[in-house]
Amino acid sequence: xxxxxxxxxxxxxxxxxxxxxxxxxxxxxxxxxxxxxxxxxxxxxxxxxxxxxxxxxxxxxxxxxxxxxxxxxxxxxxxxxxxxxxxxxxxxxxxxxxxxxxxxxxxxxxxxxxxxxxxxxxxxxx
Length: 126
Prior knowledge:
mainly beta; four-stranded antiparallel β-sheet; globular; seven-stranded mixed β-sheet
């Protein structure tokens, strides 16, 4: 079982930036994909961004395109989410997730992911 630990959340003003990190533990870590989802109070968990562990493909929700960037450091088994131009509607708990093998689901579908972190809170004040 892969253990994912997020860090980097916090309180920021509108227009500010935060960088989330997610470190994966495990002797051999080579997932098909990793991603970020978020969940605001009273709302369902939603897709934010994802990438394939090999190759350069990245995927973003329309609501964050042009503002968020997902990246990885394979040598450290770590994925990052750089969040710029933050808005109050970005306020949520952000979860890191990994997909060990291709599940035949869309990369933005939570059901395809099999390991989740504990979440990190991001609050954007207006």
